[in-house]
Amino acid sequence: MTVSIRPPPVHLIVGRFALLLTILKICIVPCAAGAKETSGWVEKVRVFPGDILVKAKIDTGAKTSSLHCTCMSTFERDGEEWVSFMVENYDGEKQLLERKVVRNAVIKRHHGESQERLVVMLGVCLGNTYRETEVNLIDRSGLNYQMLIGRRFLKDLFVVDPSETFHTKPDCGDISAE
Fold first, then answer.
1. 10-52, pLDDT tens digit by residue?
2. pLDDT digits (tens, 9 = 90+) for 81-134
């Protein structure tokens, strides 16, 4: 008598493989995500220099962060382009900042128009994380939030929970940024 052993049908193999992948995802992903700080889709952040408290939309669809400012004027300092601009904090107090322009960015807006913006380096404190990042300057007075935090800042450090707002408080210790 010969016994023939047939392999299980392909759909059972695929089903078992999918189950294994799901189990691995459940076990591994929280560990990797746990190393990152969680933020809501709207947070209060501190901007440096000046320790300026603003409300920010956390936007994973935007590459670069944007900051609402007014009274922008460019000038030359030591042969380089600089910009002076006024930033208003969460309480309505205004502060004049001067920063070196790192580049001009062409930003494609959601309705198809492109817009050229000045980009500067600013320090940003979100939760317990301080990072110097590129920020483009724009009049956001028609928008709900003074700042937009983009992927360059968030990368490798944050997971965004879209069901949360004001999940963290900006607490980066003593920042002595110029």
1. 665 555 655 544 544 444 444 444 588 999 999 999 999 999 9
2. 999 999 988 788 999 999 999 999 887 777 778 888 999 999 999 999 999 999
Could you give the 3-state DSSP secondary structure of residue 177?
A: coil
Three-class DSSP category at 128: coil
Nearest C-alpha neighbor of 129 from the set 90, 102, 168: 168
Distances (CA, A) of 151 to 35, 64, 107: 17, 6, 14
Helix (H, G, I), strand (E, B) or coil at 92: coil
Mode of pairing for the β-strands spanning 158-165 and 37-48 = parallel
DSSP character string of 50-90? TTEEEEEEE-TT-SSEEEE-EEEEEEEETTEEEEEEEEE-T
User: What domains does the chain contain, in order, with CATH numbers?
Assistant: 38-165 (2.40.70.10)
- How far, in Å, CA of 115 to CA of 125, rounded? 27
| Dist CA 114 CA 82 (whole Å) | 23
Structure tokens at 84: 């002076």
Query: pTM above 0.70?
Result: yes
